[in-house]
Amino acid sequence: MCDFYQQAADVIEKLIEKKGSIKGLTYNRNVNVKTSKTCYALVCETLKYKSVIDRIIELTPGLDKEFKKNKTIKYSLLVVMIYELLFSSNGKIKGGGQAKKLLSHYQAPINSALARMKIQKKVSENIDLLPDNIRYPITLPRYVRVNTLFNNCNENCIKDVIDHFKNVDQFELLSKPPKLQTKSITKDNGIIEQQTTIILGEKEFYQDLDFPEILIFNHAVDLHDHKMLLNGQIILQDKASCLPSFILSPPPGSVCIDSCSAPGNKTSLLSAQMKNTGKIFAVEKDTKRCGTLIKLTKRSHCKNIETINDSFLNLKHNDPKFKDVEYILCDPSCSGTGIVNRLDYLLPTKYSSDEIVTDENDEDLDEILNQQGEKSKNSNQQKQEEKLVLNKKDLKKEKKRKLKEMKQQGGNKKLIQQQKQKDTKIPLIPIKTKEEIEEEEKVEEEKRVKLLADFQLSIIQHAFAFPNVKKVIYSTCSTHQIENEDVVKRAIDELNKNGEKWRVVKILPHWTNSRGLPIYKNSDYSIRMTPSKDYTIGFFVAMFEKINQENNITPQIIENAQKDIKHENNNNNNNNNNNNNNNNNNNNNNNNNNNNNNNNNNNNNNNNNNNNNNNNNNNNNNNNNNNNNNNNNNNNNNNNNNINVKQQTIKNSNVNSEESNKKHPKKKLKLK
Ligand SMILES: C[S@@+](CC[C@H](N)C(=O)[O-])C[C@H]1O[C@@H](n2cnc3c(N)ncnc32)[C@H](O)[C@@H]1O
Questions:
Q1: Whose CB has fewer CB within 10 Å in the chain, the N or C terminal residue?
Q2: Over 60: is that where the pLDDT of 390 sits?
């Protein structure tokens, strides 16, 4: 047997056991680069087909058992070899060996299982058996954040990094964002979707227009062992993942808590915002991940961090050391459905992690789900589980009954033998239709997401209760409404019930293209990043702010309005960029219109007059928005008028944040 198979199988086994990342496990071996590359490619391709191969094994009677009996052949090796046999360009297993011999006995039933799967899915090509996210992967650019703490917060930090990439690594800095390419793809369910990507050459990069610390490279640029990464000068962090720290923006000297902090990329950005002054309590429940947090924040030159290896939920609100805490970042564990650019999303569990190169998600989800599950497991679920066990038992009973019947009827030995053989071909688990499997998976996923949402809510509710907290930011890398807009609504409803004065802040108001879903009044105050539109991972951010009872105007309202004015001044000088954005703009209008339709549907279901009124207002706002977007070819005179209106708004200090946001004229789009 070829060595590559064994190497790839070892890597896959370790990945399943969450013992590292694909790159780490393939390149850390003591083999040459060429061998590592071949192994890496084989691992990636096998993982793409893993769910299909698992199903083939399930549909091939006896195969699984045979391999389990044979203790020398691992399951991961079986998967690699079936990939090679059915899906590689070779179409056969190279070399000899015991595994190949065993597998060749099953070649016919394996081929027939594959054929059955294709018939069931009504496809003719193997590639069409793959799920949508694997068939149409979204390629995101490589985001690099310059660490402004480097070299004692040297003011030339960003320039030094850009110069290094230009002069040492021979990259070309583009003076403006590159072109976008949009393609239509038809998904499994027949829906046609638009996917937009950034066209960047392999040796090109550019500086983000919103956050100058962020540099954007071609997705294929590999910086995992770059000198500037290892010495803490740069951090590999998706733009979306930087948003919570940028938006919370604690001033130098303040006191913060990062409630779920490992591996610490948001913590180190908070630290940079605070210029290494004040204090950040970085809380992390998982001991191993806490170790990574300490290592990475040290590497990022953070000096204002105190790590706490405990559950945030165990922190006491009356502990004197938290009395000055004003800012809290909540980035709790989530389903991770927004992470589209990682190879390990191909693994059997979506909840896996590559803790060195990416900051999102974590490995303790099973524990969280178990804990939340214990609280909410209801009798319905139990009944369903019992039913499944019964199904298996019934099947065995049925086999026995048939044989007994034949014997009683005096059936001859040959026939009984044939029946026995036929029966062993019936898999123990009843074969379910594709629809049944999909439905079951959907129910299972919904159950998991609900448990996660309860956990996420408990984290932000714990944050609200610190005595002097002013701002709480909440984020997830999930695309589920249940974990995002719904958690925000549940949190604010709870606060209102208890008579506490908190509001959701309209963050980054000029980002008209990436708002939260318009499900309820002001749910679009939050930010929702979508890979196919924003070229970042899928991400959600919302910010809560305590209302100062004496004066309803909060610093955030003034800050937002000032940012809008600055932004529109920039826009006057930036006609070209805005013209490029017209395409996005139209997409956005379509999205808004779709969302409006959803809104109306929701209203009908609710039969609630007040809600209808609110949503109609929303619709009107959205329609205005569309009109404004359509007229987006920079009318400078209008802009100047807008600025005057906004300056007026700042002066008028008797309006609350929601009102003031409504009064703001709609903003122009900005390329992100
Ligand atoms: C999404 S990750 C955080 C990523 C991190 N904010 C970053 O940007 O680098 C969630 C983290 O929360 C941790 N966690 C989960 N439950 C927790 C709890 N009750 N208290 C503190 N940390 C928790 C997980 O172990 C995981 O490291």
A1: N
A2: no
Give the distance (Å) from ligand 1 centre to CA of residue 282: 10
Do residue 50 and residue 194 come from a single domain? no
Q: Domain for residue 434, yes or no?
A: no
Residues 541 and 559 in one domain: no
Q: Which of 236, 265, 281 is the last residue of a domain?
A: 236
Specify the DSSP class assigned to residue 148.
T
Q: Both 30 and 101 in a single domain?
A: yes
Q: Can you tell me whether residue 30 is helix, strand or coil?
A: coil
Residues 6+ apart with CB under 8 A from 576: 176
Q: Are 504 and 522 in contact (CB under 8 A)?
A: yes
- Is 259 within a domain? yes
Is the ipTM above a cut-off of 0.90?
Answer: yes
CA of 606 to the centre of ligand 1 (A): 36
Query: Angle 287-299/265-273 helices, nearest 10 degrees?
Result: 40
Residue whose token pair is 């974590």: 362
**Alpha-carbon distance values, 79 to 49, 84, 337, 343 (Å):** 9, 9, 25, 17
CA atoms of 304 and 436, how far apart (whole Å): 53
Q: What is the pLDDT of residue 445?
A: 83
29 lies in a domain?
Answer: yes
Residues in contact with ligand 1 (CB, 6 Å cut-off): 241, 260-266, 283-286, 289, 311-313, 331-333, 359-362, 364
Question: Among 157, 242, 290, 477, which one carries the catalytic annotation?
Answer: 477
Q: How far apart are CA 554 and CA 75, in angstroms?
A: 59
Q: Let me know whether 512 and 365 are in one domain.
A: yes
Nearest CA to ligand 1 atom 5: 261
DSSP 81-108: HHHHHHTSSS-S--S--HHHHHHHHTHH
Q: Is 477 among the catalytic positions?
A: yes
Binding residues: 260-266, 284, 331
Out of 100, 130, 160, a domain closes at: 130
**Is pLDDT of 226 > 70?**
yes
The residue whose CA is least distant from atom 11 of ligand 1 is 260
Do residues 569 and 659 both lie within one domain? yes
Query: 194: domain CATH number?
Result: 3.30.70.1170
Cβ-proximal residues to 301 (8 Å cutoff; 6+ apart), any chain: 147, 149, 150, 232, 276
Question: What pTM was estimated for this model as a whole?
Answer: 0.67
In this predicted structure, which of 138-147, 226-235, 253-262, 635-644 has the lowest mean pLDDT? 635-644
Residue 58, in any domain of the structure: yes
Tokens of 465: 């209760």
Which residues lie below 8 Å from residue 304, measured CB to CB, with a gap of 6+? 271, 274, 276, 277, 278, 279, 280
Tell me how far apart the alpha carbons of residues 506 and 525 are, in angstroms, rounded to a whole number: 4
CA-based nearest residue to 131, from 11, 50, 27, 237 = 50
